[in-house]
Amino acid sequence: MHNPKTFHRIARFNLRLFLACGLSVFTLLIGPFNAFAEDIVPSKELSLTECIELSLTSSPDVLAAQERIEQARAAVQQAQSGFYPRFSVGETFVRSDFAPLVFSNQLAQGELSGDFPAMPPPGFDPFAQFNDPGPLSNWSTQFLLQWPVFQGGKTFYGNRAAIASLSAAELELQAVHNNLAYAVSNAYYQILKTESSIRIAEQSAAQIQSHLDIARARYEGEIALKSDVLRVTVRLAEAQEALAIARHNLDRAKSRLNLALGLPVNQPLALTNDRPLLLPPTDADQTLAELTELARLQRPEIERMNNSIASLENAVNAARAGHYPQLNAFAHYDIDSEDFSDSNESWTVGLSANISIFDGFLTRSAVSSARARLREAEAQKEQTILQVEMDVKNAFLGRSEAATRLQVLQQAVAEAEESVRILSERYAEGMALTTELLDAEVALTNARLHELSAKYDYLIASAALERAVGAIIDEGSGQ
Are 451 and 404 in contact (CB under 8 A)? Predict the structure, then answer.
């Protein structure tokens, strides 16, 4: 009989061995997935250009647009198939005692003959067998060649419509790239803006904390009032609240950037911010009229509408094909046999022409529908042009406004910093009130935040202007 302790040791050893093997198998299974995840998730700090490049390869919007291009290419191939002949092979088996079918199958097999080896007996009716034949099997092999020679222009115009639709799909991808580059730039700058605002808020909170320490020391030394301590405490709570809000806004901004990049919204992401924010000179800027004209030439949405209109014009002509005659050529080669011991071969070639006299207004309604879609596309093009002009104007005015704000706020920050410096020295010497210093600190923080907001608003407006004129945004655009 086994020792219970030995049995338990063996059982534990087997359990460990089973878990180790299972862990090894699990590691082998998930290894490729981990490698795949490492390929997608960036492991370094990303610049704006790198973020844009990543979005153009991983964004679901880009992938969807690429698949629409593949659909359009397949549609072109389908339209072009009408220019080529069609070849098919078919096999049919029939067994029947239906007199006409038996007769035709015997005829196809070459089994009917008018020669009799001997005179028929008296009373023999040679047609009785035709009226009531026995069952007959027939294997029929057919090689069929069909060629639509002329379809009233339907194939020709359908092919041109498909090619124009393909061009429109490719331009749609360019529009997606353009819009995505702006979305990435916007989110990128929002993150940098929020990170900078957090640093400003942290500096403000630290400064107010030092003021609170001074106020408490003065209160304990009976130099200051309790109300001074409470006032500074309230200011510190407000600064800490603003800091908490800024940190949550940073999380939201990073989620928006991850969304634009096609990454999980909670994926950690680090960005580079090693370049100063400089306002570029405005004397060389293009005018609003020049930018608007440039947008008319470059925006892929406008050219995409032109291709859509061209596609629909060809669709109208293709719909008219129902009014014209159609010509088809065909040829087939047949092999018929009852049991494969013997067979008969035959061939047929021919042309068929057809013209529709009345189709219940089918062609007329198809043409009317195609024309209505064409007019709709033309109206959409006009709306697209108006929207492009509005995009350019809004971005142009937004950048001009941000540039003006930035110039004003840079001077305001310098004045606020000097005011805080003077009041801090006076407050340390007991010559300034707490409220005066706190108000100056709040004014400086607000001025810095407004200046920071104006800087990044300028960059975002510059990115919006790049998008509005149809230019893919590069790193440093607007700097």
Answer: no
Q: Is residue 478 part of a domain?
A: no
Q: Model confidence over 50-108: pLDDT tens digits?
A: 888 888 888 899 999 999 999 999 999 999 999 999 999 999 999 998 888 888 888 88
Task: Tell me if 311 is assigned to some domain.
Answer: yes
Rounded to 5 degrees, what are φ and ψ at 281? -65, 145
Are the beta carbons of 465 and 393 closer than 8 angstroms?
A: no
Judge whether 284 lies within some domain. yes
124 belongs to a structural domain = no
pTM score of the predicted model: 0.74
Confidence (pLDDT) at 271: 86
- Band (453; pLDDT cuts 50, 70, 90): confident
- Nearest CA-CA partner of 446 in 474, 479, 475, 412: 412
Total of domains in the chain:
1
Q: Which of 91, 92, 94, 90 is nearest to 102 (CA)?
A: 94
Say yes or no to pLDDT of 367 above 90: yes
- Cα(49)–Cα(417) distance, rounded to whole angstroms? 35
Tokens matching residue 8: 């338990």
Q: Residue 290: give its domain's CATH number.
A: 1.20.1600.10
Question: How is the chain split among helix, strand and coil, in percent rounded to 5?
Answer: 70, 10, 20
Amino acid letter for position 303 = E
Round to whole Å and give the CA distance between 127 and 385: 82
DSSP state of 88: E
Domain span holding position 269: 48-80+155-320+365-468
